[in-house]
Amino acid sequence: AQTVTQSQPEMSVQEAETVTLSCTYDTSESDYYLFWYKQPPSRQMILVIRQEAYKQQNATENRFSVNFQKAAKSFSLKISDSQLGDAAMYFCAYRSWGAQKLVFGQGTRLTINP
Amino acid sequence: DTGVSQNPRHKITKRGQNVTFRCDPISEHNRLYWYRQTLGQGPEFLTYFQNEAQLEKSRLLSDRFSAERPKGSFSTLEIQRTEQGDSAMYLCASSVSSSTDTQYFGPGTRLTVL
After folding, report:
1. Predicted pLDDT at B2
2. What are the chain B neighbours of A44 within 8 Å (beta carbons)?
């Protein structure tokens, strides 16, 4: 079974600075998807960014980018120019190719200091 | 597109009672998922529907849990004879069959079993 590990329960960053959230996963599969979801306090989870394992190029979405290291089974999220609205729980998730369920990590709580 | 909606948002019940939650997916989304999220943890997959067919169930879904999606639109999740360990946030998500198949989450139903 696949597992996802987020080793940083909490992170904090000064507004406008850059922060990197870590995620590692364990799988024997070669084709899969990886995701970062954001869950603001008392609000619903939203997708931040996704990466297909067959793509070597790292995904980017505006201020959000990933560092996907397939051999190391690592998938970190970099948030540039942090904003107060980025404060949330961030979850890393894995989905097997052809499957539907998401396997989530434990989450990292990100605090933005003004 | 009004997003995924879930009702009720909060439910407090006594141990041994039955509860039912409802999820309305984004219109035209043919896939619907239920997850459970306990405090401080990432969501865990419970079950998944494609149209009205329940295609996958987690081992977490004990005999006391049942989910339905009778007309391929809204879904209900029923928990019979609730236990204190059932206290959690129950999340619903939906997606449309596609190459991206992004899951969009609802706000969740928070269940407290006294």
Report:
1. 77
2. 3-4, 105-108
